[in-house]
Amino acid sequence: MKPIILDVDTGIDDALAIAYAVRSPALEVLGITTCFGNVPVEEASRNSLIVLDYLDSGVPVFQGAAHPLVRPYSGEKAVAVHGEDGLGGRADIEPKRGVEPVSAVDFIIGRVKERPNEVTLICVGTLTNLALALMKAPEIAGLIGRVVIMGGAVTVPGNVTPWAEANIINDPEAADFVFRSGVPITLVGLDVTMKTLLPEEALAEWRAKGTRLGDFMADIAAFYIGCYKRNYPGIRGCGLHDPLAVGVVIDPSFVKTRPLHVQVDLEGELSFARTVGDLRDKPEKEPNMDVCLKVDAERFLRHFLDNAV
Amino acid sequence: MDNIPKLLVDTDTGTGKSLALLCAAASGLAELAGVTTVFGQAGAAEAAERMLRIIGLAGSAAPVAAGAERPLFRERPPADPEEDAADFAFPESGRRLETLSGADLIVDLANRLPGELTLVALGPLTNIALALVKDSALGGKVKRLVVLGGALKAPGDVTPVAERNMRRDPEAAFRVFHSGIPITMLGLDVSRQAFVSADGLKPALNAVTEAGTPAAEAIRRLLGELAARFEGGVRLAELLAVAEAAEPGLVGTEPHDVTVETKGALSLGATLTDLRIGAKRKINCEVGMTVSPERLEDRLARWLAAAAKGGAR
């Protein structure tokens, strides 16, 4: 089993990713760390705990960053995408547990040091917690097995602006810091996640299981799909952004990657928070990450539907 | 003569640019109505002096005016060591530069040839932007503006996302793209395809050797200089722009809503468009995407041969 830490801002697709990771026999989920993003960090923690209750899982939750590294935090929630409560109206119960007394940053540092070169971090929110961990303990840069990031859009349009993706624009400096850190990175951006769509019809499979988890997952996914249909007329379902990052760790053969040098635009007016990859034949700098550019969407979707619920 | 397309070429210095301008002046496939110069590898005044000599080889009497020596809002960027300035000692033409500025010459010719003039911009868009300030109705008076520059879906050249001409004056490019002037953008998406193989060049080189005109001799030298920089042929992006301006349809285009990044070191000068599903678009240009290699080779060879034969003896 691969030891992983899942960093989330739960969020509907974060919830789907948590279920997929916790239920996967291939993964040992050491802990879940939370961050502001889709919702404020306290709600991200609460929502993560609710999802874990539906999963009957005791995976510990560690609360992390409440705001971006160097920018004011708007506190705005992505209500249209994830609902007022971040779970499409299904965060309507109290979680059985609370968060752990250790911060997300200290948990990441501690686990990475305890199991050098073994731990994979799956970051599906802003990269603030990881950036802070790398600032606090720079020595972990050489000890992290790999960071798999859901974020960015290197060869395709963004989703918050025509060029920027949500997880990057929510804390662009944190993303830049991580990209420059030398940590081995796999970037799971919109390049592939907008190709892995969860169709509404598939939710019937989950409901047919007749379980609390199946209904919960189908309900939140249905809310998410509704938003996609409004935002992207004609689209067949919702992008499985965060679950694909988990999928890439479970089975790297779901995707094809290309080593690229990628930087975050921190100054541009139009290009702000764009993940700028050097796609030229003769790039100026050495690659700093593997960028997913192709995905076997059908095989991934099948695996996700069969295993997440 | 009415059917011969009338071109105004706005350019900085460079081997490919000199060659394209010479072809515009000497081939008889277009009427060179005027030449304006802009900073780039060299200054605009220096470029104007060189271009005067170049078109002199073809016996062209087209007016040549020096334009902007620096970008609209920035210091003049340094020359690029990877780009040449075509430092050939061509003979003096015996003609003088116009006393009016490049932007004024653009406005003047557009008003004297309403609906007939095609502008071809081979360098930074500073002169075009200035002309649009001087005459805000300019866009409706020209047939169209063919821009050699930008990179919409393809990577950039001087940076991962920016092409040299746009990077050299991003604000000018922004203003031109948002001005309403009809634009055909020939960016790196298509200009990288403007490659003519050594074999494809042979007929043109034969014509050049036979012609024996000063223009032919200059074409031979310029092609030789370009051949030394590319393997297996030459990239003739500037000539592609002139040929497309004179004979529209060579290049396959897509309509797009193009804008230009004007802030930030990383993305400055990037040509951008909103490619999201359902994005609202206000089409402002046709962007060159494809060119058939056979047609390209055939067409450009024809221009080179015509220019070799057509030059003054």
Structural overview:
The complex is a heterodimer of chains A (309) and B (313). Chain A has helices at 12-23, 41-54, 79-82, 104-114, 128-136, 166-169, 172-179, 190-193, 203-208, 212-231, 241-250, 297-307; strands at 2-8, 27-34, 61-63, 120-123, 146-150, 185-188, 197-199, 237-239, 255-260, 262-264, 275-277, 289-295. Chain A is α/β, with parallel strands linked by helices. An eight-stranded mixed beta sheet of chain A has the order 3-2-1-4-5-6-12-9, with helices on both faces. Chain A has a two-stranded antiparallel sheet with strand order 7-8. The two termini of chain A are 19 Å apart. In chain A, 57% of the residues are buried. Chain B is α/β, with parallel strands linked by helices. Chain B has one domain: Inosine-uridine Nucleoside N-ribohydrolase, Chain A. Chain B is built from twelve helices and twelve strands. Chain B has helices at residues 15-26, 44-57, 102-112, 126-134, 138-141, 164-168, 170-177, 188-191, 198-211, 214-227, 237-246, 293-310; strands at residues 6-11, 31-37, 64-66, 117-121, 144-148, 183-186, 195-197, 233-235, 252-256, 259-260, 271-272, 285-290. In chain B, helix 1 packs across helix 2, helix 1 (15-26) packs across helix 12 and helix 4 crosses helix 7 (170-177). The longest helix of chain B is centred in the C-terminal third of the chain and has 18 residues, at 293-310. The radius of gyration of chain B is 18 Å and the shape is globular. In chain B, 58% of the residues are buried. At the A-B interface, loops of A face loops of B.
